[in-house]
Specification:
Elements lengths: L9 H12 L5 E5 L2 E6 L4 H10 L7 E9 L13 E9 L4 E8 L7 E3 L8 H12 L2 E3 L28 E6 L4 E6 L20 H7 L3
Parallel strand pairs: 2-5, 6-7
Antiparallel strand pairs: 1-2, 3-4, 4-5, 8-9
Length: 212
Amino acid sequence: MNPAVVSSNPESVRDAVTAALGDKLKRIDLKLGEVTVLVAAQNYSEACRILKEAPGCQFEQMIDLCGIDYSEYRAGAWDGPRYAVVVHLLSLSLNQRLRLRVFAADDDFPVLDSITGIWSAANWFEREAFDLLGIIFEGHSDLRRLLTDYGFIGHPFRKDFPVSGHVEMRYDPERKRVIYQPVSIEPREITPRIIREENYGGIGAIARRDPS
């Protein structure tokens, strides 16, 4: 039977990936029918190449790459590295998927290898992770900001980045150009609202008038 038309089960994906990565594998989990692999930063690019080419893996397509800031994970109880990159891979030929996670070794200056030479689709995803989280991808040919303005200060998806930002921009009719200035709104803390009133907003009254 042609393996391209057979849906692989997660157990076979786990076993094939474990065999292919060998000592480059730090951890592999199978939960909720999904396989997640953890590799060390120094093995990241080589592990990606293996996952793309090794028989039984053949993850030809990278479908997503994103950065994560774990600094407030588990309500601040997380004591591992702060920044990670998560990559989602797809094997079209074997009909299987994989999640790959790698942590940057340095919290103050997070650096990982670029995988654009393995999957060209990683280009803009790595630029996004650099822009929003400040993760450096060594070997990327054009690592520039992607979503924020050229003069933007900081990385807005970091957990310690202020909600209102550092500066704001507006059009100055006298100078006839866009200018930057200090943020004019007052800092505020966003906390979830817990509604305890029985008839808050008239909801109870509406329910009594219209039981349906």
